[in-house]
Design brief:
single chain, 314 residues, alpha/beta, Rossmann fold, seven-stranded mixed sheet, globular, binds S-adenosylmethionine, SAM-dependent_MTases_sf, SAM_mthyl_Trfase_ML2640-like, transferase, S-adenosyl-L-methionine
Amino acid sequence: MRSDNDSWEITESVGATALGVAAARAAETRSPTPLIRDPFAQVFLDAVGDGVWSWHSAPQLPPELVEAEPELPLQMQAMVDYMACRTAFFDQFFLDATGAGIRQAVILAAGLDARSWRLPWPDGTTVYELDQSRVLEFKASTLAEHGAQPGCDRVAVAVDLRHDWPAALRQAGFDPSAPSAWSAEGLMPYLPAAAQDLLFERVQGLTVAGSRVAVEALGRNFLDPGAREKRRARMDRVRALLAEVDPRREVPRTDELWYFEEREDVGDWFGRHGWRVTVTPSDELMAGYGRRPAREVEDRVPGNLFVAAERAAG
Ligand SMILES: C[S@@+](CC[C@H](N)C(=O)[O-])C[C@H]1O[C@@H](n2cnc3c(N)ncnc32)[C@H](O)[C@@H]1O
């Protein structure tokens, strides 16, 4: 359950969702033909051991469970594919932005995103990573112990994105008069609708023409009560069966951390505020990367929208 000022360790509540994404990226990285490679994802998982996040790596399931829910392995693989495509989309976004000369990147809700260590940043690039303090501390200390060095000037900015974070970003060295590139990946459902609007207003106040933004926005089906009920019932069945046959395993209740609230369409918001917008629905993104989900489970993959925008002059 959420509250206005809740905070978390990496292994609990919203923090554990960052480990879930790392588990999916680790699974993709060790697959035979990975779309993305994130060698640091497994480093984070090794530091914390098994937990509810391990579910997102699409582990082998007990035969009793597969017999009762034959589409579950396909569904879990489709989610690993979704996370791989999402990672590739944001990787490409930052590669394009720095290729166009932008030297300030801001990763909102950075979680265990290891782009500061993974991507080939041009000299002189600063990457600001925003997230809650204990998430950023876990990430930095785990990678330091591993001996990894970021390939950019990485600046951790410990904030709550529901609060007034622009002052902290400026204090950390961010220059609002120079172009910047911003990402919001895996963040929107964890923010109340009002906090989403405020987030974009703050981005607007910190950007100049030529700046870019990429957002994983919620699709129209996010609020559909029928789809939500179906998903909840399916996962309750899986949870009950697993409790009998493999009680050590946990099934996440991620949707309990989400805010099911009406929101303005993200592409419309940026369009209204003077940005040139392109929107790629998740099914198109996945098809483009050759990772179309199996037909039986295509309605179980998030119908999110991948929004990219560039702020126009004037
Ligand atoms: C699903 S994870 C995604 C992490 C990362 N963007 C990725 O895709 O790997 C969600 C992240 O959002 C962060 N987050 C959610 N709400 C936040 C808030 N109000 N302030 C700061 N961070 C927040 C969590 O701490 C967590 O790291």
